[in-house]
Structure formats: C-alpha cells, structure tokens
Amino acid sequence: MAKRDDFTINGETVAPGSSATIALPVSSFASGMPASLHIRVAHGRAEGPTIFVSAAVHGDEIIGAAIIQRLVQRIDAGELAGTVIFAPAINIFGFLTHSRYLPDRRDLNRSFPGSPKGSLAGQVAHVFLNDIIDRCSLGIDIHSAAIHRYNLPQIRIAPDDPHLLELALAFAPPVIIQASLRPGSLREVARERGVGMLLMETGEALRFDRLSIRAGERGVLRVMAELGMLECPAEFSEETVPARSKHSQWVRAPRSGISRRLRKSGDIVEKDETLAVVSGLFGEEEEEVKSPIDGIIIGHVNLPVLNQGDAMFHIAEVQRFDTLEERVGLITDSLNMSQRELFEAIPDEDEVI
Ligand SMILES: [Zn+2]
How far is CA 341 from CA 41, 207, 347, in A? Predict the structure, then answer.
C-alpha cells in the first residue's frame, strides 16, 4: 500500500501516523505578543476523511476544550484512517478574557467568511475558514449555553440533509434539533462550501460538567466510527435513538422577581405543567410558569434573580411523546450513567470544576 502523504499546514508537516500541535498566526495582541490559533492535528496512517472538531467560537463557551482534551488522549494517529484537526479555542481573544465576543464586541459566529483586512473577528474567521474548514468534509462545532444557563447535550443540524441526519443519529445525543441556519454563521458558510456541520450545544458557559464531557467524547468517537475512521470503543457502541425535534420554544419569566425552579434540562414535561414559580422578593404574589407544549426541556436558567421576559426554559417539541421517557432512559444508560447521575451531573450555579 502506498504511503499516505504528509499533512501540511502553514509550512509545517505532520507525517502519517503522527500528531502535532501547530500555531496558525492570526494577528497580534495590543501588547505586541503574537496572537495565534493553536490546533492539534492527528494525521492517520491510513487514508480517510479529514474532519475538524472546534470549540469556543464564542470565547466563554469552553466546554468543548474539555471534550477535545479527552479526544486527544483517546485518538491514536497510528490507528486512525483520515485526519482530525482539533481547534479548542477558536475565539482566542474571548477565550482569554472569558467573553463570548471579541475585544471589538463582534460575534465571531456572525463574521464569516471574514477577511485578512477586516475586523479582528473577520481575521479570525478568515484563518479558520481557509486553514481548517476548507480542508475538511465535516466539522463538529461545540457550543454551550450562555452564562447562568445550562443546555442538555443536543446536536443541531440543517433541515433536509439526510447525510447530516445520519451522522447526528450516529452521534446519539439525547436530542437532535433540525433548524435553519443564521446568516454569517460558521454553519452557513461551511454549508456553502460543501462542508457538513454538526453543532453540539451542551452545558454552561465558563463551566465544565461531566454529562457534557461524556456525551461529547462519546458522540465524536461514534461519528468517526460511522465515517470509518476508527473502531467505536465498546463502551460507546450501544445503539440509542435520540429524540428529534423541528420546533422549540422559549418560556419567559411572567414577572420580575425570584424564581424557584421545579423542573430542569432533561425533564420530560406536558403542556400546562408547572415548571417554576416566580415571586416577589419576600415570596409574595407567586406566579406559576407553565409549559406551553409537550416536550423535553433542553435548556434552563440557573440564576434565580429574574427580570420579566427573561428566558427561563427552552423546550423542544417532540413527535411520539409517548415513547420519549423510554428513549431518555436508553440514552442515559448508554452514557454509563443512571438517570439520577444525569441529574447530579447538571451543575448547580456555583459548581466549578
Ligand atoms: Zn455559542
């Protein structure tokens, strides 16, 4: 069998069967230090697809960095077919300052395709697009909820793409959401260039939690197995059927005040079920917050101090609601966690690992 070509990027080479950490120059910090995008390339010995796994496009959504650390430990380039590029801190500026945005207040996920002479966000987008996305056939981009919010592990894909749906089913998160793409987003520009994207939403900004890390590690390895890049580890091989949704709805605070949350992410809820109560500062004038639909809670707010209209719960409507409870049970079993552990894995507001 012919030896596979080296992987070359920014003048550096990675031999087949080896891994390397590479710095891609983007710009410089105000202090004059170079600002580079650090990536880890695992270049398999055998031919196969090239994919990327990225995180912290929103700089405070750091959960993907923990997932990528696990994947880097588990993936042996000597046993790999194809190539994986890991980019755990895409928004290098926001990652350092614990901010969703860049120093110029721009949202990197609205700044694609970008340009070398554009805004700082545009410069980062340009390097990411040209040096990473354009070399790949698939990307898995990992996000979390905003600060004080938690998202149940979920995969979001473009609607009407059977191949992506297959890969999302292989990932096997608790929930798959098929939703349209936002202009200027990484997913939209990748799609225009023929690169499929799975967007993982999981956990809370600036926090790590066990369920998110486990679900991300498991999902990426299962997708790579589906693409023939590696053998699926036995501990992750159990078949599960994620709940699927094309419609989700936010439930907002009916008044300003203090909330007492009764339900949380992962819970299955029925229409008109009470999710929380919001009262005044002394517990007076309680108002109930009810679910507008049958579904599964895919995100919730952890911060109990609320203004009227604040988003409190994100609920995905699911078809075949009658079998969902059973499915959620299967999913948590396959993550090697009981339902109780799942709930324990959802962090309290001040839990920092
Ligand atoms: Zn995000």
Answer: 34, 18, 11
**Quick check: 249 and 317 in contact, CB under 8 A?**
yes
Q: Is the peptide bond before 254 cis (omega within 30 degrees of 0)?
A: no
For residues 214-228, give the mean pLDDT: 97
Measured in whole angstroms, the distance separating CA 161 from the mean position of its chain's CA atoms is 19
Encoded amino acid at 222, one letter: R
For residue 221, the CA-to-ligand 1 centroid distance in Å is 22
Q: What is the DSSP letter of 132?
A: I
Residue showing tokens 């040096």? 131
The domains found in the chain, sorted by start residue, are: 7-236 (3.40.630.10), 247-345 (2.40.50.100)
Instruction: Please tell me the pTM assigned to this model.
Output: 0.91
Dist. CA 145 → ligand 1 center (Å): 7
Ligand 1 centroid to Cα of residue 300, in Å, is 15
How many CB atoms are closer than 10 A to CB 280?
Answer: 13
- Please tell me the distance from the alpha carbon of residue 114 to that of residue 184, in angstroms, as a whole number: 9
- CA distances 23 to 17, 90, 180, 240, Å, are 20, 12, 33, 38
Say how many Å lie between the CA of residue 100 and the centre of ligand 1: 8
Tell me the pLDDT tens digit for each residue of 92-131: 999 999 999 998 889 999 999 999 999 999 999 999 999 9
Distance 59 CA to ligand 1 centre (A): 8
**What does the alpha-carbon distance between residue 211 and residue 291 come to, in Å, rounded to a whole number?**
25
